[in-house]
Design a protein that fits this description.
The structure holds two protein chains of two kinds. In chain A, 67% of the residues lie in helices and 2% in strands. Chain A has 15 helices and four strands. In chain A, a hairpin with a 2-residue loop joins strand 2 and strand 3. In chain B, 38% of the residues lie in helices and 24% in strands. Chain B contains eleven helices and ten strands. The longest helix of chain B is centred in the C-terminal third of the chain and has 15 residues. The chains are: A mainly alpha, B alpha/beta. The interface between A and B is large, with 36 and 40 residues.
Chain lengths: 382, 268
Amino acid sequence: MNFGRFILGGTDRTALIVLVFILGFGILVPVLNLMTPESSPVHVPSYLVPLIGKYLTYGLLALSVGLIWGYAGILSLGHGAFFALGGYAMGMYLMRQIGDRGVYGNPILPDFMVFLNWKELPWYWYGFDAFPFALLMVVLVPGALALVFGWFAFRSRVTGVYLSIITQAMTFALLLAFFRNDMGFGGNNGLTDFKDLLGFDLQADGTRAGLFAASAVMLILAYLLCRWIIGSKVGRVLIAIRDAESRTRFLGYRVEYYKLFVFTVSAMLAGIAGALYVPQVGIINPSEFSPANSIEIVIWVAVGGRGYLHGAILGAVLVNYAKTYLTGAAPDIWLFFLGGLFIAVTVLMPKGIVGTLDQAKSRLPGLFKPKAAPRAQEVPGE
Amino acid sequence: MSEAQLSEALSQPAATAPDVHPAADTILYMDGVTVSFDGFKALNNLSLYVKEGELRAIIGPNGAGKTTMMDVITGKTRPDSGEVFFNGGLDLTKLDEAAIANLGIGRKFQKPTVFESQSVFDNLELAQKGRRDVFTGLFARLSGEQRDHIERVLERIALTEHVGRLAGNLSHGQKQWLEIGMLLMQDPELLLVDEPAAGMTDAETAKTAEMLQEIARDHSVVVVEHDMEFIKALNCHVTVLHEGSVLAEGSLESLQTNQHVIEVYLGR
């Protein structure tokens, strides 16, 4: 029996479909935007490119939450914080790129520092004029925070709703901190007025198409990384931890290290998502840290299907498409819709869209192989 | 103090010198272990010694402290006082669950606890003895030898035909066997088995007793059980727990005529 095939059997197709779909999108949208005349029926208007690009970064963010929630049972209600930190790291690079083209024309200091009468750049802004350094910080800062936070939380065996609450507290604390002007991150207004990235004008169609393609490629790479982790023995240990944590401990696994590993990887992916998000929307401010944002990510994953990597991506895109549509068509009802959606999914489709489809498939014998449907289980003695 | 007195003093369990441990040939040594929860003494000065290679049954009414004893040995509960040593000189009271499991103590729970959303094969693979760190896990590939080991265990627990099924879909008895199989994969020196026959049919019970006896040939096994028929089938040394300490020890026949034991089991 080929063990690899045994584990992946039946789901390889899914992976292929997901990859072809994202890749197709990543190529088609930029090409149709750049290569076709505006009069063409297949032309993708320029305003849509960063909008769909934003969905892709949300898809990556949802993937990072889907990885830890779906497979390790870690319900983070603070993942927006890692996303925002990645975004700030990218934003700092973009600020330094403005150079003397700012309102005050200071070649070193960003406008908001000049406005606050700061004389020199704070130490933590050093290095952000170099793109490679900024990229490194995009993954290292969220990763380091996750590592330290997770170390204390998982070592103390904080699980379930208590963990969710402290992740929420973490993002709230960062929200308050980043609101302060003297933190040196632009306070309330955040970082904005970006001009260019690696010398490419951020307003240009070509740059936006490039960012779009980069988002698609990162989403694919992250998806493959997550699949590789889930498909390895680590993935099976994580599922074991999710279903029966103390049992896994009695088998000799250091549950806290496994959680720490996957939590940190997840935070880094969220950071990358944030870094791709910021140049496409043109701003990063403290509201990205708001607890409601983090809860929204969890709703995307729940809608798409907890325990399915592609479900998380699908959920993010669908819910955000609905958000774009509804906040335009009927702005007052968006929040009610979001709340209603979460309740409806929890009650009617606890496995989300993908999970429900999957179940329906497995009821048709002969067509599809039944798949290991993830589910939670009571842990004895806890 | 004469030499004889001195050596006698040293051989007392109370002499706490782990180097010259009083019970170097024990696989499990518990001495004066007390655990209390909110004033209730779940274990009260419990002392228990299991020799290497022994099959030992532990019986006792509900609340006698059997499960708490397992919790103490496996690191889930820290004793308030007392000593717990494994394999002669390893102090278990200072280690956590994972460390104790890796030393070579396996545990089967009262309620069958398998990983329900994973296949029988995966369950056994997860339990397989080997490195437990994340990095190894990312690149782990099963060797032919490991696969053979899994297949041998599958045969032993009569689940070969069910290898691809989700553990959650197995019958109650099969789950119990799968859990015993997971212990075999772990290949621990000491197996702690909590009520393996609970909820089983007579035929399943007999088969389980057979399995455990076979396992006991090359492992030390401690079985906690209520079912007297099952204990009889095991045919081994029996310890009776009552209110957190040892009430009596001996063969099942001798215990059945023991006045204290009869009182505890029937007299209330």
